[in-house]
């Protein structure tokens, strides 16, 4: 598992949408998105289990964000709708093997990380 590569970040207005992509996630790996805003700790956003299927979301994004994967392309996506200024952060994708459900939201569970992509939502 090599370092992951995110793309798709940018500047959008509140209420807009953005789709992030993460390349390099093998189908046997659980994957997750985390974000970190200035002055704040890294925050769990969403996760998807190996091979797809079950997904998990933080309360702050549930109903607005959708995580998905394309195993044939080793890619994971994060569709972000109804964006708010509070969503502004550097978004990073992560991948790990054997991640149990209770650890899906913990950074320590993931071995591979991307460089991060900036998402800025203007008011």
List the main descriptive attributes of the protein structure presented here.
123 residues; mainly beta; seven-stranded mixed sheet
Q: Mean pLDDT score, rounded?
A: 95
User: Which strand-content bin applies to the residues?
Assistant: over 45%
Radius of gyration: 13 Å
The number of helical segments is 0
Please give the largest β-sheet: 7 strands, mixed
Q: How far apart lie the N and C ends?
A: 38 Å
Q: State the share of residues found in helices, binned by percent.
A: under 10%
What gross morphology would you assign?
Answer: globular
Determine the oligomeric state from the structure: single chain
Helix/strand order: EEEEEEEEEEE
Structural class: mainly beta
The count of DSSP E runs of length 2 or more, i.e. the number of strands, is 11
Unreliable parts: none
